Amino acid sequence: MISGRNGTRSAVVIGAGIGGLTAAVALRRIGWEVTVVERAPVISEVGAGLTLWPNAIRALGVLGLESAVAVHAIPTVSRGNIRQPDGRWLRHGRADDVGVLAIHRAQLHEVLRGALPERSVRTGAEVVGGTTGTGGPVPNSSPEPPDSRTHATPTTAPSLMP
Ligand SMILES: Cc1cc2nc3c(=O)[nH]c(=O)nc-3n(C[C@H](O)[C@H](O)[C@H](O)COP(=O)(O)OP(=O)(O)OC[C@H]3O[C@@H](n4cnc5c(N)ncnc54)[C@H](O)[C@@H]3O)c2cc1C
């Protein structure tokens, strides 16, 4: 994270998976400038279905994406309650839970990606290190060859440092 002279805060999010894209959307919603750096040359979320639990659905709702997700999702079990083998509740949904949804990973990814400006996501750039400081992140421009290397400069040392 860095702060610009005009008070704008910027962040580099490493990885354009569901987690990274969600974090980027959330930061933009509160006014941050965000760059998502993805090492894959092309963003393609593989895999099959994903279950969205009520907490995930609530989080997507806070981001204003609940309806976009609902277009692609189908309801599964009612509230996703889980019992232990002895019958006691391990998890019991809240009264306002909307239930549990199933969605194809690629579609959730597409919804999240679509909530960010094109310029916010840079592919083919791998973050290989970082330093502690207030300098700006230096992501490579997209498109980049898959072996390009990006050095981020967050205010806290990233756990992904080699
Ligand atoms: C079989 C299976 C079923 C699952 N089912 C469910 C489910 O039903 N419901 C549910 O909620 N969760 C489920 N999960 C978990 C869920 O898929 C993960 O928690 C989620 O996808 C993680 O997203 P992520 O963005 O954190 O990580 P990832 O999807 O791993 O994305 C990380 C991204 O970061 C990029 N990256 C990594 N390092 C760098 C770097 N140094 N520089 C640049 N880019 C980098 C990678 O290329 C990748 O694109 C399941 C997982 C599996 C394996």
Automatic annotation (TrEMBL):
The keyword Oxidoreductase applies. Keywords: Monooxygenase, Oxidoreductase. Residues 11-86 form the FAD-binding domain. Residues 151-162 have a biased composition (Polar residues). Coiled coil: none annotated. The keyword Methyltransferase does not apply. Transmembrane segments: none annotated. Residues 124-162 are annotated as: Disordered. InterPro entries: FAD-bd, FAD-dep_Monooxygenase_BioMet, FAD/NAD-bd_sf. PANTHER family: MONOOXYGENASE, PUTATIVE (AFU_ORTHOLOGUE AFUA_6G14510)-RELATED. This is NAD(P)-binding protein. It comes from Pseudonocardia yunnanensis. The lineage of its organism: Bacteria, Bacillati, Actinomycetota, Actinomycetes, Pseudonocardiales.
